[in-house]
Amino acid sequence: MNIPKHSFISWLVMRKKLLTKDRTLKMKITEESDCMLCVGNTESIEHLFFECTYSRVCLAEVLKWLEMNIQNMEVTGIWRRMTRIANGKIGRSFTKAVLAAVIYHPWKARNEAIWRKRVPRPQVVLEQIQHACKYRFLEIIQKKKSKGNMSRYLLKRLGNLVVRHSFREGNKVAHSLCKLGSKQQHPSSTITILHSPPDP
User: Fold this and answer.
1) 110 pLDDT above the threshold of 80
2) I need a labelling partner for 91 at 20 to 30 A (CA). Which of 53, 66, 113, 171 fits?
3) Strand partners, 189
4) In the chain, what's the furthest Cα-to-Cα distance?
5) DSSP H/E element including 141
6) Could you please report the per-residue DSSP string of 77-95?
7) Cα(172)–Cα(81) distance, rounded to whole angstroms?
């Protein structure tokens, strides 16, 4: 359920193929290697994910949203730990989508800093990640429903993912997704919250 561009950047990062400034400097494509998101550090894959103070704050915001306490801030360690914490196939799929987004968006912010001379606040990055993952999740559900290739059982499970209080409390990923939605009655379950939140 990952967004394709998120998956591609994540793939490059995990395989150490992303063209960060330390690499482009060696290739004589650029003349400097300073990180544009913080001051006085060389931009590398290891630095951007997540030694950089900016990307580290973005990650901390996401972990706070997911109610996860992870001390290892190295990207592969975070990936293993977060997917291990998530409950069930659906929870792991959603967590992987969030992880891909939390890798993609600091890279996007880095490009904005280079080309547009501006950097979004970490809270804005968190909101972008939340909404991108939420709507991707809903899009997948709608496609599977329209194609009729999901069993009634699985559809009901998806509908109840962030519905029943006991399940929500036992699954922090589902609970975090729940926070993005609003309550609405549904004939097959107690509450359905996979809807856009009301305007403040």
Assistant:
1) yes
2) 53
3) 186
4) 63
5) helix 122-147
6) HHHHHHHHHS-HHHHHHHH
7) 14
